[in-house]
Specification:
The protein is α+β, with helices and mostly antiparallel strands and 466 residues long. The protein contains 17 helices and 18 strands.
Length: 466
Amino acid sequence: MSAERGLLDRDVVAVSAGPDLFADALASQGARVTRVDWHPPAMERELAALWRDDVDAANREALARLLSAHQVLIDVRPAIEVIPGMARDLILHAGPPIEWTRMSGPLRGALVGALLYEGLASTPDDAARLAAAGGVRFDPCHHHAAVGPMAGVTTASMPVFVVENRARGNRAYSTLNEGLGKVLRYGAFAPEVIERLHWFRDILGPALGEAIRRTGGVDVRALIAQALQMGDECHNRNRAASALLIKALAPHLASLDLPPAERARLLAFAAGNDHFFLNVGMAACKAAADAAHGVPRSSLVTTMARNGTQFGIRVSGLGDRWFTAEAQTPVGLYFAGFGAADANPDIGDSAITETAGIGGFAMGAAPAIVEFVGGTPADALRSTRLMYEITLGENTAYRLPPLDFRGTPTGIDVRLVMQTGILPQINTGIAHREAGIGQIGAGLVKPPRACFESALRALAAERHGD
């Protein structure tokens, strides 16, 4: 008590930090005020500047485009015939732009394989020299309405799925999934990898295209909605979705005018590949995300992608600018004989699934996924619930039975990520850091916070420029 009495016996001096409003009010009443020259951190100021009605309105428009997407699988065609800007000397890859000297092992391996596949090089060494000398051009898949898992390498003669968004008329593309093991997307380029790709080009691709055209189109949105209620999350677990797609196509594949042995081979390949649907789902998500891109002032994320060296995001209201940072290495489970020291940093366009509100955002619907990426079913549910904190809405088509059929969290908002500190959850495969080895595990990863910080600054800078 004596200490308090002594304190109150003296003249009271108020210390004011932050806005002048409080200091001015005290001063106007005759109180002594010491003003501290302090302001909230720059990111908080910039974040506060973006909580505006016009940004909210822009986000509602972008989210409406994302949620209203109605994706239909309509064909399989050679990339050169359908992908905008595709050329014989152009190789598309996953993630943000990158030059040969900075590419990771699996991406380099996939590019070497692609050059061998296209007949542009006769040996791996020739292919590497050609790539290093600038004999071919590289560009992100995302710049051409396309996406590809892992290395994402796409060349002119590769057959690609064609998915049309019937709500807005835009299309997106993705290569055919090769299955697991030694595959191009993980950087393998052994002779059996190239032989399989030639079979895709000559037999599987044309057969799938004919079968899909005979169906009149496969409703991918409805297929994803059904698969989510059958235990898939449609990124690392596609078992139900693949079965549903094969069920839709099998009668038409069986009736094609092909030798019986060839029909049996393509049906066996499709039935034996639990990730057969993955690339279709990615193209569907790309078609939805592209429709939401380009809304001025919107802070909705429309791209998350990695090239094995950098992670990059793009934002609806910021044009085609990439905001990049060093890619993280996934944490998860490894195949026998491999460990974290073998892993390459995060790679692939497959985070387009999380961008569109499935994949890691829907893990609560897929408890079995934890056997592949680690964790527990409770962790999967917790992860999905957390994603509602950084998203602008819930998907009305994709619903989650374990959450009383609540829609999946959809529409990542840069503002919410920075305000809450919660980063998007992505589940993914893990590639060996050396070219030619392939997948060594699967796990969980998050984008670097720096990508969202840079995007937030850019959004705020545009506000100041208005």
